[in-house]
Design brief:
The protein is an alpha+beta fold. It has 11 helices and 9 strands. The structure holds flavin-adenine dinucleotide (FAD).
Length: about 375
């Protein structure tokens, strides 16, 4: 595969890098400490195209490919994994609209989102995490409306979303076979998203419980076809998992760069610690793993939209490898700083806390391995 980036991609990467240096890095520690999402900044970033560059131009996006979006997300991840999660969750929520929405829905919702509206992807429930087939939220048709009842948990941007892409079963007897995606607009009676999670990491992102109590929506808000939700959700993840991998690579880079800098400056036993082979090998391993994870996400993102039967497996590989990689890299990078790494004076402890989620959300890394194994068994890879 040719990983040579085009001039356009290099320009986007550079633009994102400069923006992150100026707008994201200076506020990252503050919002982490406050456990608050910088809502205005995230909306600004969305309206400037950070989450929508792969949305087709006729709906207000930049019409670029998913690989370019991943390059941008890597830069955001280097700045703050929490803020990047808020921006990335918007991309996640636009995917079902791109994949299943009709012209009218795309014109209305994608255009709004490209102008800075926030969206949430609502799949997970208290009893349906890895096991999507256990989803219990219902959307029952009554005349020309659907009535939604149920609880969604761990929903990124949940408190602030303008639009919720909600997966619900339309026939409880059929369960997940009748899973169907809908759009619910903020302010609809019976919708509540006030309970926020307090988290270990990515504290500059918002994670909320979203509850639906007799929420009535018009039938026009159904995305795609009745019973088509499972497929839409899985196709969404095939595209979004390389983005998580890119985010993890960005975060790992931030930790590696901080460790490298510190190792050059910190003198012990009369010389900078970077002259100790033990430190050099840790840095070398970090560099190897970051490069490997980047190659995997570039490969997976490059496969999107090309009809490849092995996309699910490669997206899962990119996400699982990058998620495990960022955990190892942030732990080692903190080790390079010794006791100082453990303090809040340096960002390493934040990086390590932020890294853990990369093994959990958008399907845990155990689930990614199941997907890869299924592809091996069925001969798709
Ligand atoms: C900060 C945050 C943000 C999130 N954002 C969103 C969002 O925006 N939208 C959304 O819909 N969801 C979101 N999620 C939910 C996330 O995707 C789930 O937490 C994740 O899929 C795992 O589900 P669970 O937490 O219920 O764990 P469980 O499914 O209960 O898993 C618990 C453990 O068992 C393992 N396990 C489960 N089944 C198997 C199996 N068959 N084989 C091997 N191991 C298994 C898992 O790997 C894990 O280690 C978010 C979660 C967090 C924490």
């Amino acid at each position: 595969m040719d990983f040579e980036l085009t001039t356009e991609q290099l320009n986007m990467q550079q633009m994102a890098r400069e923006y992150v240096e100026k707008e994201v890095i200076p506020v990252a520690a503050e919002y982490d400490e406050k456990e608050e999402m910088p809502v205005d900044l995230v909306r600004r970033m969305i309206s400037q195209g950070f989450s929508t560059i792969s949305v087709p131009e006729n709906y207000g996006g930049a019409g670029m490919d998913d690989l370019t979006l991943c390059l941008v997300i890597e830069e955001l991840g280097r700045g703050c994994a929490g803020i990047a999660t808020g921006v990335g969750a918007n991309s996640l929520a636009t995917l079902p609209i791109i994949l299943a929405g009709n012209e009218e829905q795309k014109n209305k919702y994608l255009s709004d989102i490209c102008c800075g509206k926030l969206a949430s992807f609502c799949l997970t429930e208290p009893n349906a995490g890895s096991d999507v087939s256990a989803i219990a939220t219902t959307a029952i048709k009554e005349g020309s409306e659907y009535v939604i009842n149920g609880n969604k948990c761990f929903i990124t941007n949940g408190t602030y979303a303008d639009y919720y892409v909600v997966f619900a079963v339309i026939n409880p007897k059929k369960g997940a076979r009748s899973l169907t995606p809908f759009i619910v607009e903020k302010g609809t009676a019976g919708l509540d998203a006030t309970r926020k999670e307090r988290k270990m990491g990515i504290r500059a992102s918002n994670t909320a419980e979203v509850t639906f109590n007799d929420v009535r929506i018009p039938e026009e808000n159904l995305l795609g076809k009745e019973n088509g939700g499972f497929r839409v959700a899985m196709e969404t993840f095939d595209i979004s998992r390389p983005m998580i991998a890119a985010l993890a690579v960005g975060l790992a880079r931030a930790a590696y760069e901080a460790a490298r800098q510190y190792a050059k400056e910190r003198v012990q036993f009369g010389r900078p610690i970077i002259q100790q082979q033990a430190i050099q090998f840790m840095l070398a391993d970090m560099a190897i793993e970051i490069e490997a994870a980047r190659s995997l996400y570039l490969k997976a993102a490059g496969m999107v939209g090309k009809g490849s039967k092995s996309l699910s497996a490669y997206s899962a590989m990119a996400k699982a490898y990058a998620g495990d990689m960022v955990m190892r890299v942030t732990v080692d990078a903190l080790q390079v700083l010794g006791g100082y790494g453990y303090t809040r004076e340096y960002p390493l402890e934040k990086y390590m806390r932020d890294a853990k989620i990369m093994q959990i959300y958008e399907g845990t890394n155990q689930i990614q391995r199941l997907i890869i194994a299924n592809s091996i068994i069925s001969g798709r890879i």
